[in-house]
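Task: complex structure prediction.
Instruction: return C-alpha cells for all chains below.
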Amino acid sequence: MPLVEAVNVTKAPAVQDAGSDRRGDVPDPPQRPQRPSRFSPPRWRRAGPAEPPPVAVEQAEIAFSPDDPLLSYLAGIAEPVPVDRIPLDSPGTRALREAGISLVVPLVTAGELVGLLSLGPRRSEREYSTDDRRLMQDLATHAAPAVRVAQLVREQEAEVLARQRIAQELHVAQLIQQQFLPKELPNLPGWHLAAHYQPAREVGGDFYDFLQLPDGQLGVVIGDVADKGVPAALVMATTHSILRAEAARLVSPGDVLRRANGLLIEEMPPHMFVTCLFAILDPASGRLRYANAGHDLPYLRTAAGVVELRATGMPLGLLPDMEYEEKEVVLQPGQEVLFHSDGVVEAHGLHREMFGFPRLKELVAEPVTGGELIDRVLTDLSRFTGPGWEQEDDITLVALARLPGPALSWPAPDETMSLPRDARVLAAFEVASERGGERRTLPILAKAIEPLGLPKARRDALATAVGEATMNAIEHGNDSRPDLLVRVVVAATDTAVLVTVTDQAVDGPGQQDAEVPDLDAKLAGAQSPRGWGLFLMRELVDEVRTRDSVGGHTVELVLRRDGPS
Amino acid sequence: MSPRFGIRIPRARVVVLDLSGDLRGDAREDLEAAYTDAADREPQSVVLNLTDVDYMDSTGIALLVGLLARTRRDGRDLSAYGLSDHYREIFAITRLSEFIRIYDDEPSAVGNVPAGT
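Output:
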C-alpha cells in the first residue's frame, strides 16, 4: 500500500482564462504565481491516514506557473504518471523531481486539471505497480469532482466575502457622504429651492450645501472631489467643514474659496483635488455673488436666454496662494439658476455618446416652475442613458428659482443696477401704486434701518426722502395705476444707507420736478405751489441719483451714516 | 359732517387752526374749509397748531404754500407751533420759515402774534 504523502489540490486553468484575474480580491489568497492568473498555486497539505504514519513525512510546496507545459500535459494524459517519465523539462517538472515526487496522479474532471496527487517513492523502494496506478486512477476519478466542488464552494465563499467588504466600503462612503448633505432645504419666501443628489454605486465625492449667513443671506455650495469611495468622502467631509467655517467668517465668496484652498492644500492626499462653486444669495434683492474653483459653470435662465455664470479659479487643493475671481448677478423674478456636477453632462448614452453641456443648457432654457427643472433634467437623462444604465458618477443638481413677482409683469432686468460690493440688503419690497402707497413704505423702512442706530434726524430725513421718491414713482412713473408696483430696496454699507425706488415707467422717460422750486415765485403765483419732491430729496439726503431705463425709472438715495444729525 | 380741522379763537383776532393726522395733498379741502371758517372771524393772525400732525410731505408743503399765499393776499399773519425738529428743518429748507414764524408752543405763539388794533 503506497503511502499517500500529500494531496496537491489545485485548479488548473482553462488556457483562455490564464490572463484574467477576477480572483484578485479573494482574501487569504494562496501563494500566488508571479503573473496574474486564475490559476491557484498548489497547496500541499497533509491528508494521510487518521493515525500518524509510522515514518516521518516530508512535505513540500510547489508553485506552478499557470502556463507551465506540465499542466496541460497532465490534463491531457489524465492518468498517473511517474515523474521520471514526464517528457518535459519545465520548471514545474523540475520542482516535482526536486521535491522527491515519484508519481503524480492528475485529478481531472470535465477535461480540467483541478489538482494533483503527488506521491513520494514507495516505501519498498520498488516502482509503483500497475495495480497501484490503477488504484490511484480510481481514486483520482472519484476525488476530482469532489475536489472541484470544494474549490467552487471555497471560491464562492471568498467572492461573497469580497463582495461584502466592497459593499461595506461603499456603505461607509455613503454614510460619510450623507452625513454632510443638507437634511432639508432652506425655506426662502419668494424663492423655490430644489436639490437632487444621486450617488453612483461607487460614491464619487459630490457634495452640496446650504449655509445660513448673517443678514438673511444664503450660502450655496456645490462641489466634486476628484476621486471615489471612502478617500473621496473623507476629503469631501473636510472641504465641507472648512467651507462652513470660512463662510461664517468671510463675506466674500472669493475669499472663502481662497482660504479653503489654503487650508486644503495642507490636508489633501496627493493626486486629489476638489472642484467647488460657492455662491451667496441675498434673497431680498436677488443678488447672487459667486466664485468658482474649477467647477462646472452654472446656468442662468433669463428672458434673453440661458447664460453661463463664469468666474475663473483653480480647483481647491492643487496649488497654494490661488485667487478666485468673484462675480455677481441679480436674479430677477422668474429667473432660475441650475448648479450641476459633471455626473450629468458626462453620462453616456446607449451608443457611448456623452450627454453634454448643450443638451443640459437646452433643458434650462425652457421656463418651468417650482422643482420641475430638476425633474426635467432627470427625466431627460434617463431617456438618454436608456434602461439598465449603470451610473458612472455621482449626480448633483441644485436649482435656485426666484418666483415671479405679484405684478402683472416686472420690468425687464435692469442689469446696470448693482449695489456696492459690500452692501447688505436690509429690506426689499413692493407697494401698489395707490394713493398714499408711499406711507406704507415708511414703517418697513424704519424697521429695516433700525439696527443701524442712526440719529433720529437722519432717520426722519431718509423717511421723507423715500416717501417723496415713492410718491413720485406712484403718481408719475406708474401713473397711479394700482396694478403697477413700486419696488423699494434698502441696503447698507459700513458708511452709507442706500435706498432704491423703481417704478414701471408707464409714463415713458420722465423728468419730474425739473424746475427748482422758489418760494417767492410760488407765492407770486409764478410757479405752482407744488414741485417740492425732488428738491426735498436732494436737500435731505447726501446724494440722489436717477436712472431711466426701458421699463423702469430708478431713484437712488444715499445717506451717509456719519452725516450731520 | 363736522369739519376735519377745528378752529379756536384764544384771543381776539387770533385764530388757531388745529391740524391733525397726515398733512398731504388730499387735505386741501379740509384746510380750505378751516381757513374759510377762520377768515369769517376776520383774524389778524392765523396760527397753525401742528402738534398732532404725524406726517407731512411735499404735497402738504404745497398746501401750506397755497395757504401762505392766501393769507398774504388777505393781509393776515401766518404762524405755527408744534413742529418736530424734522419739520422745522423742512420749513427751513423750503424757506417757509422765512414767512411763517415758528413758535415752540401755543402760549408763546398766541402771546406774540400780531393781533392788530
